[in-house]
Amino acid sequence: MPRPTPLSAAAIEQILPLLPGWTHGEGRLHRTFEFPSFVDAFAFMTKVAFAAERLDHHPNWTNVWAKVDVTLWTHDVGGVTELDLELAKAMNRAA
Ligand code: H2B
């Protein structure tokens, strides 16, 4: 399958209002999700795991108790692509 191409910083900034909570910098998208409990955070991560598998695109994330810190980029092209936007949308839906 052909790999997507990195989006320009200007294109990402234009799309960002459609992705509440996400910020952009240095070729990455970032959002911190906070939940009422560890179980809620883990349920979110489980939902997102299935979405990530469906997309064949996976988040870089860390979980500390009820917080999930997410950074998205497309590793093999070294920037943000449509796949990251799709995964960010899926994460907002899951939260
Ligand atoms: N996820 C992310 N974030 N970046 C990638 O480049 C990537 C991925 N590559 N998930 C996928 C898997 C690739 O390894 C498979 C073979 O398509």
In short:
It contains three helices and four strands; from the N terminus they run H-E-E-H-E-E-H. The chain is of the alpha+beta class and 95 residues long. The protein is globular, with a radius of gyration of 13 Å.
Biggest β-sheet strands, sense, barrel: 4 strands, antiparallel
Number of domains: 1
Rg measurement, Å: 13 Å
Coarse structural class: alpha+beta
Sheet with the most strands: spatial strand order? 1-2-4-3
* CATH homologous superfamily classification: Transcriptional coactivator/pterin dehydratase
By CATH reckoning, the class would read Alpha Beta
**DSSP strand (E) fraction?**
15-25%
Q: Helix share of residues?
A: 40-55%
Compute the average pLDDT: 97
Order of helices and strands: HEEHEEH
Ends distance = 30 Å
CATH fold node name: Gyrase A, domain 2
Q: Based on DSSP secondary structure assignment, what is the total number of beta strands?
A: 4
Specify the CATH architecture: 2-Layer Sandwich
Low-confidence residue ranges: none
Approximate shape: globular
Please count the helical segments.
3
Which features would summarize this protein structure in a list?
alpha+beta, binds ligand H2B, globular, 95 residues, 4-stranded antiparallel sheet, single chain
Structure explained in plain terms:
With 95 residues, the chain is of the alpha+beta class. It has a single domain, classed as Gyrase A, domain 2 (2-Layer Sandwich), CATH 3.30.1360.20. Helices cover 40% and strands 22% of the residues. It has 3 helices and 4 strands. It has helices at residues 9-15, 38-55, 82-94; strands at 23-25, 28-34, 60-64, 67-72. A 4-stranded antiparallel beta sheet has the order 1-2-4-3. β3 and β4 (67-72) form a beta hairpin. α2 (38-55) packs antiparallel against α3. It is globular and about 35 Å long. Residues 56-58, 74-76 line the site of ligand H2B. Ligand H2B binds next to loops.
